[in-house]
Design goal:
This protein has about 280 residues and is an alpha+beta fold. The chain has helices at about 15-20, 55-60, 60-65, 70-90, 105-115, 115-125, 140-150, 150-165, 165-200, 235-250, and strands at about 5-15, 40-45, 45-55, 95, 100, 130-140, 205-210, 215, 220-230, 255-260. The chain folds into two domains: about 5-125; about 130-150 and about 185-265, Alpha-Beta Plaits. The protein has ten helices and ten strands. β2 (about 40-45) and β3 form a beta hairpin.
Amino acid sequence: MIRMSAPAFYVYCIAESAAAAQLSADSLPAAIEDDSKLEWVSVNALAALVSRVPRESYSEASLAEHLTDATWTAIRAMRHETVVEYVAKRTSVVPLRFGTIYLERHGIEQMLADRSRELEEIIEHLRGREEWGVNVWCDRAVLLSSITSVSPVLRDLVERAAQAPPGQSYLMQKKIETLKVDEARAAVNRIVDQIEEKLKEQSDDSRRLRILKVETTEHGELKAKFAFLVKRAEFEEFRDAAERLARENQNAGVRLELTGPWPVYNFVQDYHVGF
């Protein structure tokens, strides 16, 4: 029987053992709990970065209860992210999600051994690469004010209305007003798809992320979120492409926000233990 007083192991990320050996525990940031230190658990070519945590606080039931406490969660999620970002800036890692717990050190060693080939392939795929986020915002008022020039359909109607007799021109103008909202929606979707397509060409992989709730700021409404896997050596080209797309679409009220670099969470599987 396992004693509840025995520690559990919180796991942050997985790296190559050779790279881990160059990152001594003393040089690493603070662990998720104040009274614990980071340490590497190595098996052959792989190493997991871990720290010991109190089993009574990180058991399945206790952790679920703690996660309802916003302050408790925010502090520890920030520490988790700080550790993973620190290591990811210095070597290729497989980042693990917040709250990855192993009850026994042996479980971590078994995971590294059983999944060694898969993990090594992932690390090789990620070598020299970073995750960059692109958020697409749209100012609805600006888009609606410019939609007759942005939308090919409305642009054509405006040109025809200008050449039509007064009565026909009036009816066409009414039709233009009716179509503005639908055309604005279609224009945003078209621009978002174009941004995704163009930035895919400048990256090795991409993900369109879910927007969990409506977000609105001074930049407008968030219309799309992307994650791109970009070679460090080619980031300048990626950034230039994003800036070019931002300039091309600014008259439509569309703004691009580039964030990162981040640990590559969106391009790896979750290695989360079951309690």
